[in-house]
Specification:
The protein is of the alpha/beta class and 178 residues long. The chain has 6 helices and 6 strands, in the order βαααβββαβαβα. It has a 6-stranded mixed β-sheet with strand order 2-3-1-4-5-6, with helices on both faces.
């Protein structure tokens, strides 16, 4: 891998939206070309999670581009440049600190997405409670309110979360520079 090529692992508990997040990244950051998108539409593949799975089933390694890096989505936890930890908003049954610890064991660079914020009305209070429950280790980790289904806060700050500054794209660029 060159210095411009980076690897990203998407992890999180069941139901957090990992496949949807991966598909969102592929669509938003140009990881799926127009010909493939048109083929997906003909085949009735319209949801982000279906797109990511379809690529993998065809033997295509999902990847996308940020302004400065080519990012390969990896399933191999042994050597990744960054872990994207996807956690669901409004889910009380997830041990958040344990999930963060698991991500930290795979990479020094971690970004936490609090996904499905649209399902909790983009509540800043809910977001802050989740951040608090992640524990003190999260102080040096970007935690982003997110909706993978809609792509909110992927490239631009969502109008639903004006209380938060920054995007996943910003966080990825920063993580890969360090």
């Amino acid at each position: 891998m060159t210095s411009r090529e980076k690897s990203l692992m998407v992890r999180g508990p069941a139901g957090a939206g990992k496949a949807t997040t991966t598909g969102c990244l592929l669509f938003k950051y140009g990881g799926i070309d127009m010909v493939t998108m048109e083929r997906f539409q003909r085949e009735g593949i319209g949801l982000y999670d279906q797109a990511a799975r379809n690529l993998k089933s065809r033997g295509v390694q999902p990847s996308f581009h940020t302004p400065n890096f080519h990012v390969v989505v990896s399933d191999d936890p042994s050597n990744v440049d960054c872990v994207l930890l996807v956690l669901p908003a409004g889910s009380a049954h997830v041990d958040l600190a344990k999930e963060l610890h698991g991500a930290a064991s795979q990479s020094k660079q971690i970004i936490v997405l609090i996904n499905k914020m649209d399902k909790v009305g983009w509540s800043e209070e809910t977001f802050q409670t989740i951040v608090k429950n992640l524990g003190p280790a999260v102080e040096s980790v970007p935690v982003i309110p997110f909706s993978a289904l809609k792509g909110d806060n992927a490239v631009e700050v969502s109008s639903d979360s004006l209380w938060y500054k920054g995007t996943l794209l910003d966080a990825l660029e920063t993580a890969f520079r360090t």
